[in-house]
Amino acid sequence: MVETQNSETQNSETQYDVVVIGAGPGGYVAAIRAAQLGLKTACVEKGPTLGGTCLNIGCIPSKALLTSSEKFDEARHSFASHGIRVGNLELDLAAMMANKAKVVKDNTAGVEYLFKKNKIDWLRGAGRISAPGTVVVDGAEGSRTVTTRHIVIATGSEVTPVPGITIDEQRIVSSTGALSLPAVPRRLVVIGGGVIGLELGSVWARLGAQVTVVEYLDRILPLMDGEVSKQMQRILGRQGFTFKLGSKVTAAVTDADQVTLTIEPAKGGNPETLETDIVLVAVGRRPYTQGLGLESVGVVIDNRGRVEINGHFMTSVPGIWAIGDVVIGPMLAHKAEDEGVAVAELIAGQSGHVNYEAIPGVVYTWPEVAQVGQTEEQLKASGIAYKAGRFPFTANGRARALGVTEGFVKILADATTDRVLGVHIVGANAGELIAELVLAMEFGASAEDIARTCHAHPTLSEAVKEAALAVGGRTIHI
Ligand code: NAI
Fold it and tell me: What is the percentage of the chain residues whose pLDDT exceeds 90?
C-alpha cells in the first residue's frame, strides 16, 4: 500500500496513481476501490459535499420525501381500514424537509468518512484536464495542478432543458427545485412521464397537489415493458394523476399568480393552454462534460454528448477513463457504482467487468415498479421466442394482509431453454423483490430453477415463485 496523506492542502507537486473527477456514486466508488487496491487516489469534487446528484439532489432526498409522503397518505387513506383512527391529520412540510436534509447530510458525511478511512484526498474545486496525466483543480482558494497516471471522468449528468421553457427553480423547477418546494402547490404540471416525473409527481400528489403529467409519447415509462406502463397509468390515475399523452409543451408564461403552458399534440395540431402553479421539467438528463477540457486533450465525444469509451471504459486517450452517466448506458447510480469498481480494477491490472444484461431498474412510486432484462416488446422486436408467466398480487396472502394487492410479477423465459430473459414487477417492495431475479439472471437460471426454489410463506416473494411456475403453466394459487 502506498503511503498517502489525507489533506486538502497538498502542494502542486502531488503525484497520484488515480485522480477521479466527480464524487457521485460512480466517482466515489471508483476512488474507494482504487484506494483499496493500493493506488494513491484523489477525487475532485466542486460541490460543498460528496455524493453528487444521487446523494444530494437525487435518489436519496427523493426517497426520503417518498417515504414521508407515503406515510402521510397511508395515515389519510388506509389507517382507518386497519382500525386506526387519527384525529386532525396535519402536514408539517418544514419538518418533512428537515428530515430529508438530515438523511442527505448523514449520507454525504458517510462518504466523507469513507474517503478518510481509505486515505483518499478530496481535491475541492472544479477539475479540468489540461493534458493527459495532468488535472487542474479550480477551487475557492485558487488553482492547483496535480499529476496522475490515470484520470477517471465521472462527472455525471445534468437536466435536459425543454426548448421555450426556462427553469427558474421557483415556479418552473427541475428535480432539484421539486425536492424543496416551500409549500404544497394546488396544481403541478410535470413535463415528462418518466422516472423523475412519476416519483416526484407522487410526492406532491400524496401531499395534496393536483398533478397533470404531459408526456410526448403515447405511454408513460416508455422504456419499460408495455404492460407495466398500462398498469401504472391506471394505478396512478386512481391516485389522482391526470395524463396528457402524445403531447408537448411549447411555451410557458409566468405571471404573479400562475404559469400558463401552451400544449400541442406531439404530431401537430391545435394548441391548448393549461394553467398551473408549479411546472416540473423531467424530460431526461444529458451527460455533463462542461469545462473538463476534453476537446483540447482529444477525448472523443459521441453525437449524444457522451464520452466515447471502449469495452473497458478507456476513452480515446490512453490513461483517461470514463464511467457513469457521462458514458453510454442507463443513467442509474448502481450502474455507475459497478462501473466505478470495474474501472478501478482494470486500472490496477485486474479484470473488472459489468454485466449490462442484468442491471435492475426501479421506480419508487406506490406501488413500486422493478425490472431486469428484456421487455416483451424488445423480445418481439428481436424475434426471440419466449414464454411469459404472470402472477397477480391479488392472489398472494401476504399482499392481502398488507392491503397492497395492486400489481403483478411477470417472468419472460426463453421458449426453448427456459432461461430467464426478463422480469417485470409492479407491486409493494418490487425494488427489493427484483434482487432475486437479478441474481437468477447472473447465474443464467431457468424459470424452473426459481419455481423449484423454496420461498418463505407468507411473503410477497411467493408471487415470484408463482410467476416462475406460471411459465410452465402450473401455478398453484390461481
Ligand atoms: P426519463 O428518461 O425517465 O423520462 C423522460 C420522459 O420525458 C420520457 O417519458 C420522454 O418520452 C418524455 N419527454 C421527452 N421530451 C419530452 C417533451 N418535450 N415533452 C414531454 N415529454 C417529453 O427521464 P427523467 O425522468 O427526467 O430521469 C432522468 C434520469 O434519471 C433517467 O435516466 C432516470 O433513469 C434517472 N432516474 C432514475 C431514478 C430511479 O432509478 N429510481 C429516479 C430518478 C431518475
Answer: 96
